[in-house]
Amino acid sequence: MTDGVTMLGRTDSRRRLLVMLVVFLVIGASLCSRLVWWQIVRHDDLAAMARHQTTVKVEEPVRRGTIYDRTGTVVLATTITRYQVAAAADQLTQQQRRDVGTELAGILQLNADDTAILLDKIEAGRPYVILAKQVDEATATKIRDASVDGTLSSITLEPVPERSYPQDGGAEGTTLAAALLGFVNSDGQGQYGVEEKYQAQLAGTPRELLADRDVVGRPITDTAQVLNPGVPGADLRLTLDTKLQQAVEQEVLSAFSADGATGVSAIVMDPYTGAIYSSASYPSYDANDYRKVAATNPGAFVDPNVSVPFEPGSVFKMMTAEAALEQGSITLDSLINDTGSLSLDHGAARIYDADRTATGLKPARWIVAYSRNVGAARIAIGLGRTTVQAASILAAEWVKLGFGRKSGVDLAGEASGVVRDPAIRHWSQTDLANGAFGQGVSVTELQLATAYAAMVNGGTLVTPHVVLGIGDQDVQPVDRGRVMTSEMSHTLVDLMHYVVHEVPWYKAKTLVKGYEVGGKTGTAQIWDPKLNHGRGSWISNRYNHTFVGYIGRGRPELIVVVTIHKPVPMFIAQGNLPLAVESYELFRRIATDAMTTLDLPAATAPTGR
Question: What is the mean pLDDT of the chain?
Fold first, then answer.
């Protein structure tokens, strides 16, 4: 203390200042390094994260290929633009929502119930709500006009590709070849038939876009960056003949109505290439309205010609005869004792001819023509020294002709059918006899077509197909090899010719003036597992009626298969269940349509006789 004044110590220590300076320098360096880390080192990552939050990668379908008939000019399936109507309802007042909803319901021509549903959606006030789907171009134009004049506001039209089947089918409310073509669902996936089998070719490769999101998260594709332009779907040209398909569908419908059947189906095929000119069935459906069909009767989508095996009946007597002829156990002139009934398995079972009448010794060709069950059973039993040997020979004949396995047809959903292997599950004598006339085995109509094609084309098992070309590339037919000699084929052609000329009722309703015709009928019992208290039984007096035959000028040029499923006979008598339209009469109608419609090249020399 000096002169009474107190002296205070200094507070500006240099050491303290230095420490503070170092602290600030460390903090600054840390901040700078962090900025360098985020802005330089992590720049790309942060940018990517930002892009991820504001953009989205979108796959956009390309044009789906068009499906044409065999001429390449008639469109069977194409893609058109439909629209879905969306609203940003949160941008409207409550009164505007009601006014817009009411105006839109009028343009869409909605009924009272659907109008109420639409108003409920828009009055909820959500930022994005879909008000209508599958709006056509004409209606979309009305919506655009109303938006321009201010009647509608906050409404957008979003284009949506939709598959269209423009050709009317042979029956009201159907589209042409619906079961064969299939349809495309809302996800762009082909379902059933050609659409499913050729999904990859028809759909192509989608475009890949990097698009910004709008305020509600939807991608804005108008200004999107194209990452991959995609590849448009390929067009297909089918073997189908539009005029013939229309005619066959009408014939099938006519028989369905006349016979009170549960279904009728038919195939017309080139026996030399396997090209399917027509494949028709009824009931059918409208592929443009597949959603309704899916909700009410999804079974309508299944193609009975390809996907539904059935017991074929006496059309299999041709296979029994062919097996015996190859074995040399008979000739067509061999006498077979037709006793009207036959005891099997030491009296444990008995089979009968349809009329239960013995006709005595008859030539094998006559047995086939008049479709005698007992005679066919005797031929099958005579294939080997034992039942085991005979069963092995008959089953091998079936497999050789393509039964019990898929034909390789280029359609989705093909069934294999059922051929029981006697080496795995023993056949009794009754099994062998039943197999001789087409019971106890299940096949598809398409398998019958290919087996009979081999019988008439010189002995080659063809692969049936419906596509002639993909894009600008032709599809070459393939075969599955030779399954019999040409001499055997000639013999079987003669036998089928004999059948329809020998039997008076076949001759009256099967022959076509100016053409060579041959074939074989089949009338098969139908097993219902629900009958007999769930133990199963044959349905009484109801059968599946089939005819497989050929027609041509000088040689077989077409194979035609028809099946009338579970028709109602006009009356019932022993061995006689006549139909208003018999299977062989339906064959004649379709075969005539085919020969007068198709532009087939001139036939070469005949194969037999």
Answer: 90
Q: Rounded to an integer, what distance in angstroms lies between the CA atom of residue 600 and that of residue 273? A: 13
Helix, coil or strand: residue 53 = helix
Residue with tokens 């893609």: 79
**Once rounded to an integer, what is the mean pLDDT over residues 326-335?**
97
- Domains of the chain in start order, with CATH, are 78-158 (3.30.70.2110)
H-helix or E-strand containing 447? helix 445-456
Residues 163-181 pLDDT 10s: 999 999 999 999 999 999 9
Residue 565 has which token pair?
């499923």
What is the rounded distance in angstroms from the CA atom of residue 553 to the CA atom of residue 558?
Answer: 10
Single pTM value for the model:
0.86
- Residues paired with residue 334 on neighbouring β-strands, in sequence order: none
For residue 579 the two structure tokens come to: 């139909």
The rounded distance, in Å, linking the Cα atoms of 455 and 157 is: 59
Token couple for 9: 């110590």
CA distance linking residue 60 with residue 228, whole number of Å: 10
Residue closest to 235 by CA, chosen among 24, 370, 72:
72
Nearest residue to 511 via CA among 438, 608, 589, 569: 589
| Sequence-distant (≥ 6) Cβ neighbours of residue 80 within 8 angstroms | 161, 162, 163, 164
**Residue 553 corresponds to which amino acid?**
R
How is the beta sheet containing 263-269 ordered, strand by strand?
276-282, 263-269, 558-565, 537-552, 516-528
User: What distance in Å separates the CA atoms of residue 511 and residue 449, rounded to the nearest whole number?
Assistant: 19
SS3 letters across 71-92: CCCCEEEEEEEEEEEEECHHHC
Q: Are 263 and 445 in contact (CB under 8 A)?
A: no
Considering the chain, what percentage of its residues have pLDDT values greater than 70?
88
Among left, alpha and beta (phi > 0; psi -120 to 50; other), residue 566 is left
DSSP code of residue 318: H
Residue pair 582/546 in contact (Cβ under 8 Å)? The answer is no
**What single-letter amino acid sits at 491?**
T
Q: What is the DSSP string of 378-399?
A: HHHHTTSSSHHHHHHHHHHHHH
> Band of the pLDDT at 512, cuts 50, 70, 90?
very high
Place of tokens 């004044």: 5
Q: What is the pLDDT of residue 2?
A: 47
Q: Are 394 and 435 in contact (CB under 8 A)?
A: yes
Closest by Cα among 572, 549, 568, 574 to 560: 549
Q: Express each pLDDT in 275-288 by its tens digit.
A: 999 999 999 999 99
Q: How many residues does this entry show for the chain?
A: 609
Q: What is the largest CA-CA distance in the chain?
A: 162
Strand, helix or coil for residue 372: coil
- Which region holds residue 514: left if phi is over 0, alpha if psi is between -120 and 50, else beta? left
Residue 44's pLDDT is what? 65
DSSP structural state of residue 428: P
Residues ≥6 apart with Cβ < 8 Å to 70: 237, 238, 239, 240, 241, 277, 468
Neighbours of 348 (CB within 10 A): 10
Q: How far is it, in rounded angstroms, from Cα 514 to Cα 512?
A: 6
* Residue 185 and residue 195 in contact, taking contact as beta carbons nearer than 8 Å: no
